[in-house]
Protein: 3-dehydroquinate synthase
Organism: Candidatus Ishikawaella capsulata Mpkobe
Amino acid sequence: MEKITVSIGKSSYPITIASGLLTNLITFLPLEQKSTVMIVTNQTLAPIFLKEITQHLNKQGIKVNNVILPDGEKYKTWESINYIFNELLNNLHGRDTILIALGGGVIGDLTGFAAAIYQRGIKYIQIPTTFLAQVDAAIGGKTGVNHELGKNMIGAFHQPIAVIIDTDFLLSLSSRQFASGIAEVIKYAVIFDEQFFYWLEQNIDALISLNPQALEYCIRRCCELKANVISSDEKEIRGIRVLLNFGHTFGHAIEAYMGYGNWLHGEAIAVGMIMAARTAEHLKIFQSQHTNRIIALLQRAKLPVNGPIEMKATDYLPYMQRDKKVFSKKMHLVLPTKIGSAILHKSVSDKILVAAINECRIFTELKNNIQI
Amino acid sequence: MEKITVSIGKSSYPITIASGLLTNLITFLPLEQKSTVMIVTNQTLAPIFLKEITQHLNKQGIKVNNVILPDGEKYKTWESINYIFNELLNNLHGRDTILIALGGGVIGDLTGFAAAIYQRGIKYIQIPTTFLAQVDAAIGGKTGVNHELGKNMIGAFHQPIAVIIDTDFLLSLSSRQFASGIAEVIKYAVIFDEQFFYWLEQNIDALISLNPQALEYCIRRCCELKANVISSDEKEIRGIRVLLNFGHTFGHAIEAYMGYGNWLHGEAIAVGMIMAARTAEHLKIFQSQHTNRIIALLQRAKLPVNGPIEMKATDYLPYMQRDKKVFSKKMHLVLPTKIGSAILHKSVSDKILVAAINECRIFTELKNNIQI
Ligand SMILES: NC(=O)c1ccc[n+]([C@@H]2O[C@H](COP(=O)([O-])OP(=O)(O)OC[C@H]3O[C@@H](n4cnc5c(N)ncnc54)[C@H](O)[C@@H]3O)[C@@H](O)[C@H]2O)c1
Ligand SMILES: NC(=O)c1ccc[n+]([C@@H]2O[C@H](COP(=O)([O-])OP(=O)(O)OC[C@H]3O[C@@H](n4cnc5c(N)ncnc54)[C@H](O)[C@@H]3O)[C@@H](O)[C@H]2O)c1
Ligand SMILES: [Zn+2]
Ligand SMILES: [Zn+2]
């Protein structure tokens, strides 16, 4: 079992990682005997996990209600938030009710946001059930919903009081969903930790076969890296947290153009990282041999490294412009400088972007090691 | 001109109070030459004030958009928030856009909440135009909207970066709306400041006739009192801020039963304060001679001191129970102990509540000074 503490200002909360946590749930949840809890989950997960968890909690004298939302990114909307509020208000849930997010990033983002604004803020706990949520979405307090005019446009920073990561959840996850999470894992390694990248090269197969030790170590390292970032830059002001967007400016263009959910987030980010790496090559701040290492690792994880055939290079630009105009003050393009380190680049020309995207359009060849 | 600073944790913001501020607006707004601003106001106020303010700002090179909402408490809803988001996103407003709330408490609460959750939080400025908003709603960072199942149920704490109070706005305000604000002024005096209560007894007529000096002094004192409370208890955790709810548990019952907007907030609070005072008399912690002083002052301000004839005492209780269950952990009834001081009482019996409400049901007689 691994324990990590996220410290933000004066407050802090624990992340607990292990297999078999749920049979022992009560030991890990910061709940008291008479706590009142509302579990938020979806129609896919409720039949598998809800009954057991509810029984565990009931046995301890904890009052449990639940809200079961339809499954899917397209339900990460205000309507779902409002549905949660209806359930809370109809059941007279007060400010001392604690929400529990039981699900992937969608349920986590929704539940966290509902907690952020129900009666001006109540507590919540993350129990992430996808790999992507366990290594990324459940940590850091970014919460929110999509708006018809933009993804994640509405939200709040609101930290959970605990994150409980049980690797057993991953047993029922599809391999495609699992791979989507690996993309974010590789992202951490590229921008922050060469040694971890090396570890991934050694252990990617163990990870894919859900080896418990490999999983625990990998999740712990990702949580540590993210916790560090958040401790020093909770609200993405200082520019450290922004590095976590590596691959995302390109990736968002793919997700949006292809229609959310068709390309999984991690799949789009995988390609986005290569596009960012190619951009960095053009700017002569990154060497193609390193891009090759990233490509090789992504391919072993069964992740795409080429953009969708349907998308021309110029199809990316409007989305990237929009990202820039609407979401950041400047064109924030995170670019790698070597494996384990990245910077924020503020003005990449469209010409270079188009060239870099084109190199990942249909087939990414492993380039020869050209030393610059 | 009066200046007050609200200090919360490491950050602080100024409240500026004077007449004629708007002709000099630019001096008081923390905006830079190339700032981008979105003014949120309503259909009543836009024709009166919007053009002048926009011109002032444009002259300084500030880019100004606006959103004009329909007027009324019934539009303090998620739909209005979403309308603001549509305007922001359609016009590609980024995280550096500053919202300006130009209006009463409804516009202030809406704008503040939109700012709290647009892209996880952007800056906003309050320019309150009602007396109630100038002495209360615009200060303190409580923002939010109503839910069909409860008033102010959804929201966030989000402090503005500045509050600009121009007493000239009050010239166009109806006297009924003005009186509604006086109820909150009297509230401050009863719970915090006997001397201020005395000042009000001396100056209530000057206030009602909008004497500039009286207005400035009165608004300053209210802002100071509220700023002090907020500095030590921003999120209503320590129980000091909760004292500001004096009169509100009863008042909310009136507002909800009568249908929001039929009784103005301040009108309901005026009666609520008398009901709370009578409750305190029953508990022998407050003397009826002090209730009489409050009644006399409210009456001079043209505020009601009796509940609506339609409402039986038992009609209040379900709303008060609901307030208790849903909004606070305990039955928080704020009761005065003398003029200038109040406490939080945690368990008043229904019998006493009914008796106290009945005393304000149809006609509140000035009781004789019975010493307890
Ligand atoms: N808040 C953040 O910091 C952050 C970071 C990254 C991503 N996100 C958000 O997270 C979302 C993506 O998260 P996701 O990839 O977890 O998607 P998801 O929540 O949609 O889950 C993917 C699918 O797997 C199913 N599932 C979940 N757990 C399962 C299990 N144990 N067994 C079987 N099926 C299971 C879900 O029902 C769903 O169909 C996006 O909305 C993204 O914006 C947020
Ligand atoms: N956030 C807080 O701390 C806080 C505190 C108290 C009240 N509130 C909220 O404030 C709201 C009540 O505020 P309010 O009393 O200002 O009501 P309001 O905003 O509805 O304004 C009252 C009316 O006066 C009009 N008006 C405003 N300024 C005017 C002017 N200068 N000239 C002519 N007409 C003008 C408005 O258009 C409206 O019709 C409620 O929703 C209440 O919940 C919030
Ligand atoms: Zn991501
Ligand atoms: Zn009030």
Notes: Residues B 42, 44-45, 71, 73, 76, 103-107, 109, 129-130, 132-133, 136-137, 140, 142, 152, 169, 172-173, 177, 180, 265 surround nicotinamide-adenine-dinucleotide (ligand 2) (CB under 6 Å).
